[in-house]
């Protein structure tokens, strides 16, 4: 058994750039360019592929639980 800890400052939600291909894709899909507040994680362990994921606040107004958001993640 192992232990780990994590300490971070959670960024506020923010927009992704909308002036390039990503913006065009978001507009075509009728999705918001806002990224939700999130905690990113990059997990590694010997013998396994790295896992990059994030935790997203479920009460964030730009939460991916709404179909118009610009990202996906796990909720806390």
UniProtKB/TrEMBL annotation:
Single GO MF annotation: oxidoreductase activity, acting on single donors with incorporation of molecular oxygen, incorporation of two atoms of oxygen
Alphabetized SUPFAM superfamilies for the sequence:
Aromatic compound dioxygenase
Q: What is this protein called?
A: Intradiol ring-cleavage dioxygenases domain-containing protein
Q: Where is this region: Disordered?
A: 57-76
What superkingdom heads the lineage? Bacteria
* Gene3D superfamilies, per the entry: Aromatic compound dioxygenase (2.60.130.10)
What InterPro entries does its record include?
Intradiol_dOase_C, Intradiol_dOase_core
Domain Intradiol ring-cleavage dioxygenases, first and last residues per copy: 5-63
Taxonomic path = Bacteria, Bacillati, Actinomycetota, Actinomycetes, Frankiales
Q: Which organism is it from?
A: Pseudofrankia asymbiotica
